[in-house]
Design a protein that fits this description.
The chain is about 30% helix and about 20% strand. Strands 1, 2, 3, 4, 5, 6, 7, 8, 9 and 10 form a ten-stranded antiparallel sheet that branches. A hairpin with a 5-residue loop joins strand 6 and strand 7. Helix 2 packs parallel to helix 3 and helix 2 packs across helix 9. The longest helix is centred in the C-terminal third of the chain and has 15 residues. It is globular. Bound molecules: protoporphyrin IX containing FE. The site of protoporphyrin IX containing FE (HEM) has 32 residues, from helix 2, strand 2, strand 3, strand 4 and helix 3.
């Protein structure tokens, strides 16, 4: 009990000032960086799979959320490249980190949405800094004089510089680990809180490409691979909660928690097929990554902003 109180106090003390940039500002900044088009403002090129989520009983010690009560539930997933460019080659520098969005259809008709990407930690600490970074990317085209705005940004943001230098590229969407990055507060049936971050580990094992191997791949190798793969075998990921300890940053997604933190297996996602109408499914699909549910609430303000920004981008493609 004392440990829980201390943890809560540490986390309160770290509370950020409220963001100045609005969700609309963030979507506009994404369009400044990647261009305006009637598709997702970011993570634009993607491919969807359908399947099921099977919960693990261990999750019930952490949250009372009904999706963990037992029994399989339908899931729709979308793998994507990072950039907001519809026809970007999978081998372009703007492709990583690749993303994984998940939508679990609960028995009561509600959606449990998750959005993760392949790097353990976000490029910056806050949505305000992300807006600044995106605008600097937009101002740093091929004809911009050096140091460009983005070069100047990176010179003063060492975490962002390290982030860009350490991105990996997967051999397949099915062979990357994905990270939820932002923190959640989970509450179990006894009212006990736990701060968690999500991780999704590939059943096919991790397999990343060396730069020369990557550049030699076809422009849609990730999409081609996952379509062929799911036709011959299930594509599966185990979902884990990484558990915060005292002093771990709850509201700063740019700082990963140590790998030594305890992980609890929450269940398994198993994908077995493509949607019947892929283009319609892609247009209609939208995740709300900060949506609260019984036993699950956002603990990082970035999630609340993301929850308002995604529908703005969604409306742009209807
Ligand atoms: C302030 C920070 C962020 C902003 C403003 C933002 C904004 C957006 C927007 C506008 C979309 C398009 C949504 C749509 O049109 O349906 C999107 C998609 C996505 N974002 Fe973020 N995002 C942020 C942080 C993150 C983080 C931290 C992650 C990973 C943990 C992430 C992962 C994704 C993924 C995987 C998608 C694709 C969703 C899909 O496939 O439908 N984003 N983001």
């Amino acid at each position: 009990m004392l440990a829980t109180m201390l943890l809560a106090l540490t986390q309160q003390a770290a509370a950020q000032t409220p963001p100045k940039q609005t969700p609309q500002d963030l979507v506009d900044a994404l369009r400044t960086a990647f261009g305006a088009h009637h598709a997702r403002a970011v993570h634009t090129k993607g491919v969807m799979l359908e399947g099921a989520f099977t919960p693990d009983a261990a999750a019930r010690a952490l949250t009372k959320a009904p999706i963990f009560a037992g029994g399989s539930l339908p899931v729709i997933a979308r793998f994507s490249l990072f950039a907001g460019i519809p026809d970007i080659p999978d081998t372009d520098a703007g492709a990583p980190p690749t993303g994984l969005a998940l939508k679990i259809k609960a028995k009561d008709g509600s959606d449990y949405d998750l959005a993760s990407d392949q790097h353990n930690g976000f490029i910056v600490a806050t949505s305000d800094e992300f807006a600044e970074f995106l605008r600097d990317v937009g101002a740093s085209g091929p004809n911009a004089p050096h140091p460009t705005a983005v070069e100047q940004f990176l010179a003063t943001h060492p975490i962002a510089k390290t982030f860009l230098a350490s991105l990996t590229v997967p051999a397949s969407y099915a062979t990357a680990t994905y990270f939820g990055i932002n923190s959640f507060k989970w509450t179990n049936a006894k009212g006990h809180p736990t701060y968690v971050r999500y991780q999704y580990l590939p059943r096919a094992g991790e397999h990343y490409l060396k730069p020369a191997e990557w550049k030699a791949r076809r422009p849609s190798y990730l999409q081609d691979d996952i379509v062929a793969r799911v036709a011959r075998e299930p594509v599966a990921f185990d979902w884990y909660a990484q558990i915060a300890e005292k002093g771990d940053k709850i509201e700063d997604p740019s700082i990963a928690w140590p790998d030594s933190r305890r992980r609890v297996k929450l269940g398994t996602f198993t994908f077995t097929r493509l949607p019947r109408d892929a283009a319609a499914a892609d247009r209609q699909y939208m995740v709300l990554p900060g949506q609260p549910h019984a036993g699950i609430e956002a603990a990082d303000p970035m999630l609340l902003l993301r929850n308002k920004a995604y529908p703005i981008s969604f409306r742009g493609r209807q």
